[in-house]
Design brief:
The complex is a heterodimer of chains A (about 100) and B (about 260).
Chain A: H1 4-19, H2 22-26, H3 44-58, H4 64-68, H5 73-77, H6 81-95
Helix pairs in contact in A: 1-3, 1-6
Chain B: E1 3-6, E2 9-16, E3 25-29, H1 38-41, H2 45-50, E4 54-58, H3 75-89, E5 95-100, H4 102-113, E6 118-124, H5 131-148, H6 151-161, H7 163-178, H8 181-184, H9 193-197, E7 203-208, E8 227-232, H10 239-242, H11 244-257
Parallel strand pairs in B: 3-4, 3-5, 5-6, 6-7, 7-8
Antiparallel strand pairs in B: 1-2, 2-4
Helix pairs in contact in B: 3-4, 6-7
The chains are: A mainly alpha (about 100), B alpha/beta (about 260).
């Protein structure tokens, strides 16, 4: 059984590491509806890095790049932390 | 992300190995300015790898997470980087080069300089580095720099495209003012029409009918002995982003058609 709140916490931890010290400057609390690009000031290249970190943490079954390859640009730009966490939880659930 | 030193510069790259036993390798080359390997990695790379093709994406010098020197941005520098990267990651095998916008121009220049390393070229909204290209680039870059030097234009960008694009515009401005990229890129080395005609590897040029070559879609592809053209109607320059599903199909089919010849024994 997948604990989705634990998955969310893990994803938030990885994203906070990615944003680094800028998180304090931005004054943003990372929540489910926090947007990866707009709120956190991250770029598409950071999604590539995050994809690697997620695969490292959860295993190769979590393949963010392959998932996002089915998105349109506007969907990628509007991507939220909650959507990323949901994708990870879904993949882990499928493997259970 | 993995990185290696290419011509002395820290270069960020990603490799996705094709399922099964891949026999073909594709190298994705992104465009100039705010572009990075992400535009390929988040669109074409995973499905192309899933089709059994090895995929390499990398950040050009001065872009993404690769090193950003102040100078050294002539087209020839980008071609030299690509050569060193291919030697390091692929070895002796020939590769398919897939370039978007300026990345396609690098692919054409590379195919002319190192034909023995190239299986085919797929260019997306790109053209070979002729004098016509250089003139167009100088004009476009000068207009972009002028636009980005006016503060009110950032408000207009945000109002029309959102805060994300405002930030991208700021990034582009910083990259162009911190480096000599805009001045150096159009210096070449440029190719003559005869050089373009001498590109003998198969070339697929994918264009938007209203993109950067809308004035004469077939002008350059028709010069190359094995050139083919595919045009998206009702489409501007952003072919890769707006048509990535269709481009994926074209690319996988193209690589299968132009892969390593299978020989008996």
């Amino acid at each position: 059984m997948i604990d989705t709140s634990t998955v969310f916490d893990d994803v938030v931890e990885l994203i906070c590491g990615l944003v680094g010290d800028d998180l304090d400057i931005l004054g943003v609390e990372v929540r489910r509806d926090t947007a990866f690009h707009e709120d956190l000031g991250l770029e598409s290249i950071d999604l590539v890095t995050l994809g690697g970190l997620l695969a490292e943490r959860f295993g190769p079954r979590v393949n963010l790049a392959a998932h996002l390859a089915e998105y349109d640009l506007d969907d990628v730009i509007g991507l939220t932390v909650g959507e990323i966490a949901e994708y990870v939880a879904d993949r882990l659930r499928e493997e259970d | 992300m993995p990185e290696l030193k290419v011509n002395g510069l820290r270069t960020n790259y990603q490799v996705l190995s094709g399922a099964g036993e891949p026999t073909e390798s594709v190298v994705f080359i992104h465009g100039m300015g705010t572009d990075s390997l992400a535009s390929f990695y988040l669109t074409l790379a995973p499905p192309v790898a899933a089709a059994g093709i090895d995929v390499i994406s990398y950040d050009l010098r001065g872009h993404g997470k690769s090193e950003r020197p102040v100078s050294g941005y002539a087209l020839a520098d980008f071609v030299a980087d690509l050569h060193e990267l291919i030697v390091a990651l692929v070895g002796d095998r020939r590769v398919h080069l897939v370039g978007n916008s300026f990345g396609g121009t690098i692919a054409y220049a590379f195919a002319a300089r190192f034909p023995e390393r190239v299986r085919s070229v797929v260019s997306i909204e790109s053209e070979p580095p002729t004098e016509i290209w250089a003139t167009k680039m100088r004009f476009t870059l000068a207009a972009t720099l002028e636009m980005l030097s006016v503060e009110e234009n950032y408000d207009w960008i945000e109002a029309n495209f959102g805060a994300h694009h405002r930030r991208l515009a700021r990034l582009a401005a910083k990259r162009f003012t911190d480096t000599t990229m805009a001045d150096e890129v159009p210096t070449g080395a440029l190719m003559s029409i005869e050089d373009v005609s001498a590109i003998e590897v198969p070339v697929l040029s994918i264009l938007g009918r209203y993109g950067y070559q809308s004035d004469d879609l077939d002008a350059l592809t028709s010069l190359m002995p094995r050139g083919e053209l595919y045009v998206f109607d009702d489409q501007g320059h952003s072919v890769l982003v707006e048509q990535h599903r269709a481009v994926r199909g074209l690319l996988v089919d193209w690589v299968r058609r132009h892969g390593t010849p299978v020989t008996d024994g």
